[in-house]
Amino acid sequence: GDSSNYTEALFKKSGDFINSHKVLNLAPIISSKKAEYGDDLYYKSDGHWSTLGAYFGYEGIMDNLIFNSGYELEKVKFFGYEKEDFDNYSLQKTLGMAGRYNDFKTNVNFTPQTQIEEKYLEEEKTWQNLQLYENKNALNNKSILIIRDSYSNAMKPYFYNTFEKTYVIHYEKA
Description:
This protein is 33% helix and 24% strand. The protein contains six helices and six strands; from the N terminus they run H-H-H-H-E-H-E-E-E-E-H-E. The longest helix has 19 residues, at 51-69.
């Protein structure tokens, strides 16, 4: 079905909760970018945001955070993107979809752009457990905790270049 109808129904059914809490719906933000960037916002073969779609998700979260927190926070700056072919054949083959999609990946040009390795804060080092990205050169001397799902993977570089300490944990472990 149409995901926008699903999102609208979810927000309608959650009315009292939504009205009494600050809830950010990124769907309208991403939809507004679709006119300009088209299908470059999502990968064809797995449905996740590309780094381009993730940038606009990051921007929406940051704008909402700045508005609701009252903090004056700097955001990373977007300078465009490149698109290149991406061989996702092994995933397609695993899913029984081999040869159906010629996928791509996007490389977003943004600044500052420092690569940071995660530090695992739990003994078991898995992608779901608590991680810390520490960046002394980040734009803001603040920390953020991101309780994430798989869509936020592509957002991590934007956040760890924005905040000195970015804590990340998968929602199943939170």
